[in-house]
């Protein structure tokens, strides 16, 4: 990957531009069971590079999934062309190079660990996600959506301020949607959990929780419209915090769209 | 896009999408509101030259300013008129996805086993059409290379067809409808909507309003959420007005519409004449794809409105 950075460095020098190169590699696995049969099994590997080019007051961005030298050069030139167009419209703006790029060199220890499960073990987890919900109660008639998705990869970041960073990452997502029926009534519910490693993944518990939630909705009645005291469970509070966080970023403060601004 | 397969299919298509988007934020008297609108086309870049940007901007700013002075909506069950155009998002989300063989094949739709049964009043005809020239979700061929079609989903209240890709057709036994779609080559295709709309009826909007003693006119719909297995939905209304004694009166904000798709479908009693389409991006198992929704103004005889007015 250093060779790719060397190529970008030479191109940037030739065109008197700043650059940032991000190279991502990703291995992903996903499996889904439906009606107790393997429904989907997908494994793929991708590599991609994104190039951000800064020239004067303009910034350009382009992406490629072909890391051959000629493709990377073309990607750089596309980003450069966008930067030039942007600069023509932003003559009075601050020079982009000063705004965006960091030369922070501090390195933290890797926070995430690659997964070590075999394909058979992962398929077993995917199967458990559906089976544990289906076998939990006869009123669970269907699990329309469930599955295990696992991704791991690396990110490597370079820029024209001599930044060079590399870190691995992992992500595991397990989900189960259960449909409960009783007479003519049907209710569904969903449980999904994210993990950084498989160590804490309990597929059976996730499937059973989805089933329990769906069953708990059976027989529920609409309540009169009005104002009530409401107790939020922890998961709902986390979701609500997610909405709030959208209003606490620098962009929303800068654009005065955040309700936190007096 | 080029699609080739071992059955000899080898087709190519050029797909273009143009969109203008405006999001305004207004402040006044210690309150703030935002409002957004978009215009779209798939035909050519001349679209931009045909746009009246002054009118587009003025309309968007006026809607934001109207909502700035609006009080909160009332709560309760009442008749609601849904705007033409993006009001169709409720049918798309709460009914349309349940008519895709993606969910029908899994027996995960409230529309399973309801083919040829009455699911709505006679005034309701719902269509999914991938062949409309220049429309946001139109395709020369679908993402498996099959020709797209006009599919009548509900014909005068009777469930007439599902939307099927090749695998969905094989699993369910229903005929393929050229409805296979995917975001890109990175996704496996599955049955998805194209341009989904409720066909024009015969009741002008003014007549619908005239017959309502107290209700809500949902002039501009926002986002929402739908439970896929049941069609339970919750949508926000960005711009709404109280209907009182057959007249449109004060604007109200913060309204949400709450219901179950198949029940709400059965409560559509009047269908307007002003069919309009609106563009959106539809996210599902095969990724995010451009899809249009649409309808004329519709009267739903009763629907739960969430609101905060005391």
How is this structure best described in words?
The complex is a heterodimer of chains A (262) and B (310). Chain A has 262 residues and is of the alpha+beta class. In chain A, 33% of the residues lie in helices and 35% in strands. Chain A contains seven helices and six strands; from the N terminus they run αβββαααβββααα. In chain A, strands 3-2-1-4-5-6 form a six-stranded antiparallel beta sheet. The termini of chain B are far apart. The relative contact order of chain B is 0.21. At the A-B interface, β2, β4 and β6 of A face loops of B.
**Biggest interchain interface, per-side counts:** A-B, 21 and 21 residues
Average pLDDT, all residues of chain A: 89
Structural class of chain A: alpha+beta
Please tally the helical runs of chain A, counting DSSP H or I stretches of 4 or more residues.
Answer: 7
H and E string of chain B:
EEEEHHEEHHEEEHEEEHEEEEHEEEE
Report the C-alpha radius of gyration of chain B, rounded.
Answer: 20 Å
Please mark out the parts of chain B with pLDDT under 50 across 5 or more consecutive residues, or reply none.
none
Strand percentage of chain B lies at 35-45%
Q: What's the story with the biggest beta sheet of chain A?
A: 6 strands, antiparallel
The unreliable regions of chain A are none
Tell me the span between the first and last alpha carbons of chain B.
55 Å
